[in-house]
Amino acid sequence: MRPHRAFVQSIQPELEISGREARHLADVLRARAGDVLTVFDGKGLEGRATVLDVDSGSVRLKIEETWVASRETPQPVTLYVALLKGDKLSDVVRAATELGVAMIVPILTQHCVVREMAESKLLRLRRVVVEAAKQCERSLIPEVGSLLSLKLIPSVGQGFVAHPGSSARVRDSFDPDKPTALLTGPEGGLTESEVELLETKGFTPVTLGPRILRAETAPVALLSLVTAGEGF
Ligand code: SAH
């Protein structure tokens, strides 16, 4: 079995893990002195660690070696995703993390049914991202931004907005050497004026095929075109 991956704030020769991660190691994985695990700091560094001792609520580790991990896309990909009903954004951020996204920003659009995002929901999304990053062995934890109005999205060097009315394909103009921004709309879709505004900010409207995908499927499909489909 591969060693367990633990997220730590920073990698030092000796360090102590506490809180949720320590309880998981101690109670669920039954870590014992001498066990080996992999640590990652969410900023691109990984290391091999030996457990020195396990106490109630804390686990002390000794770092044996460190390395710079390379499971990240060559250029960062930002996903702007419309606020969705219920807990659907959790599924989106989980899948987006697996697909290599660097940053996820929930956005408010004209047809969003839900109009605000509670702090607790943002914190939950950030936890989901950490769990997903561990599971898929990423070394970088994607950032989850707070809710942003579509109007306030900054101009981008390369961007794609999924729009059922478009016939252009991502692969017609995607340049893998540039940072990429992606955007998908809510259950009720984006308005034509929103798509026009996004075009002025550098987003190209693209198709995801002739079927209408659900608002939680579209971001995953779009993202996979610029990461998984490219082997990134
Ligand atoms: N009734 C809405 C459908 C919204 S689907 C409409 O007609 O616009 C939710 C979001 O998923 C859309 O805003 C779009 O960003 C994306 N999407 C779904 N299916 C798509 C497709 N076939 N091509 C491009 N984008 C799509």
Account of the 3D structure:
The protein is of the alpha/beta class. The chain has six helices and twelve strands. The strands form two sheets. Strands 6, 7, 8, 9, 10, 11 and 12 form a seven-stranded parallel β-sheet that branches. It has a five-stranded mixed β-sheet with strand order 1-3-4-5-2. The mean pLDDT is 94.
Shape: elongated
CATH class of the largest domain: Alpha Beta
Structural class: alpha/beta
Strand residues, percent: 25-35%
What is the CATH homologous superfamily assignment of the largest domain? Answer: SPOUT methyltransferase, trefoil knot domain
Radius of gyration: 20 Å
CATH architecture of the largest domain: 3-Layer(aba) Sandwich
* CATH topology label of the largest domain: Alpha/beta knot
Poorly predicted tracts of residues: none
Bin the helical content: 25-40%
Number of helices: 6
Labels describing this entry:
Ribosomal Protein L25, Chain P, Alpha/beta knot, 7-stranded parallel beta sheet, 6 helices, alpha/beta, 232 residues, binds S-adenosyl-L-homocysteine, 5-stranded mixed beta sheet
In short:
The chain has 232 residues and is an alpha/beta fold.
List the helices and strands and how they pair.
Elements: E1 5-7, E2 14-18, H1 19-28, E3 36-40, E4 45-55, E5 58-68, E6 77-82, H2 88-98, E7 103-108, H3 119-135, E8 143-144, E9 148-149, E10 159-162, H4 170-173, E11 180-184, H5 192-200, E12 203-206, H6 218-226
Parallel strand pairs: 1-3, 6-7, 6-11, 7-8, 7-9, 10-11, 10-12
Antiparallel strand pairs: 2-5, 3-4, 4-5
Helix pairs in contact: 2-3
Bound molecules: S-adenosyl-L-homocysteine.
